[in-house]
Amino acid sequence: MSTFDPTAQGVPADAMRRLAELQPGKPGSIFTSDLSVNEFLLVREAGFQPIGLVLGSSIYHVGIQLGRWGKNQELETLSQAMYHARELAMTRMEAEASQLGADGIVGVRLTVEAREFGSDIAEFIAIGTAVKADRPAPGGTSWRNNKGQPFTSDLSGQDFWTLIRAGYAPLGMTMGTCVYHIAHQKMGSVFSNIGKNVEIEQYTQALYDARELAMARMQAEAEELQAEGIVGVQLNAHNHRWGGHTTEFFAIGTAVRPLRADHEIERPTMVLSLDG
Predict the structure, then answer these.
(1) Is pTM, for the whole model, over 0.85?
(2) Average pLDDT, the chain
(3) Is residue 265 part of a domain?
(4) Are 215 and 251 in contact (CB under 8 A)?
(5) Where residue 6 falls among pLDDT bands split at 50, 70, 90?
(6) How many CB atoms lie within 10 A of CB 188?
(7) pLDDT value at residue 51
(8) How far apart are alpha carbons 271 and 129 in whole angstroms?
(9) What angle do CA 65, 71, 75 make, to 5 degrees?
(10) DSSP assignment of 74-87, as one string?
């Protein structure tokens, strides 16, 4: 039976044994990857060797939160739960990559799947391909981020290749979440709006505020990594099982840095054709 090793940040012992068989350079070691053939070739062309598939999982019970349902408000307890569950999965995936001596993880997928153990229980899963660079980053520096952890990126293999070729490196996936309750309309407002084209400002403001909170938290994580920016940002809304008036807004993207301080992206030269 698999047991959890606290020194490995919750990675099961069975997983640690599997990773031991994937050590680069070990005779008979075969890498595993969820990259497509095209993605695999482009990651190799970018100068990175796939080592093995790494994953992290957290089965999490998301509690309840009481509040004044007649007002727009963030449900902070639920926001923290949804963030912490994803963070556990990401941390365990990174621990597996560190065990392999990887410089980073590409093609990361972060998903939430409902389980039949209960209506408030879900599994949070992070999975990607650990890679090791063929050579140090320009200037002889490490490809790892400023926290000494393998970089993580949810970019496709094609976008990862383009990023490296453009002179940038991923630092890590940054995310922000906000679970928000949107107040019900008062009965008088419902009746007054019947048959009219009219903005429901209460709903507009609630959704705007919720998205802004998620985006600001994602940006704060990028600032901690000393990133220049975030690429491939996705801003999604999930109702999960809370009902129509409670929604999670989840922002995620890949924080990046230039490989050289004086780097400038080459711009294509425009060629003008004069007829006649």
Answers:
(1) no
(2) 82
(3) no
(4) yes
(5) very low
(6) 8
(7) 92
(8) 41
(9) 30
(10) E-HHHHHHHHHHHH
How far apart (Å, rounded) are the C-alpha atoms in residues 137 and 125?
30
Q: What gap in Å lies between CA 160 and CA 42, rounded to an integer?
A: 8
Geometric angle at alpha carbon 192, from 187 and 197, rounded to 5°: 125
State residue 109's pLDDT score. 95
Q: Which domain holds residue 207?
A: 4-187+198-258
Measured at the CA of 117, the angle between CA 115 and CA 121, to 5 degrees, comes to 60
In a domain, 271, yes or no: no
CATH of the domain at 10: 3.30.110.70
Residue 264 lies in a domain: no
Q: Supply the angle between the helices 37-45 and 157-165 in degrees, to the nearest 10.
A: 20
Q: Name the DSSP class of 34.
A: -
Whether 101 is covered by a domain: the verdict is yes
Residue 255 to residue 267: CA distance in whole angstroms:
22
Chain segment 196-243, per-residue pLDDT in tens: 665 567 778 888 899 999 999 999 999 999 999 999 999 998 876 666
Amino acid at 186: K
User: Distance from CA of residue 153 to its chain's centroid?
Assistant: 7
Model pLDDT, residue 3? 37
Structural domain total, the chain:
1
Q: How far apart are CA 37 and CA 54, in angstroms?
A: 18
Per-residue tokens: 258: 């230039």
In this predicted model, what pLDDT tens digit does every residue of 89-138 receive, in sequence order?
Answer: 999 999 999 988 999 999 999 998 877 665 678 889 999 999 999 999 98
User: Residues 177, 249: contact at Cβ < 8 Å?
Assistant: yes
Residues contacting 156, CB < 8 A, separation 6+:
39, 107
Residues 162-205: tens digit of each pLDDT: 999 999 999 999 999 999 988 765 544 544 555 566 556 777 88
The residue written with tokens 């068989």 in the block is 21
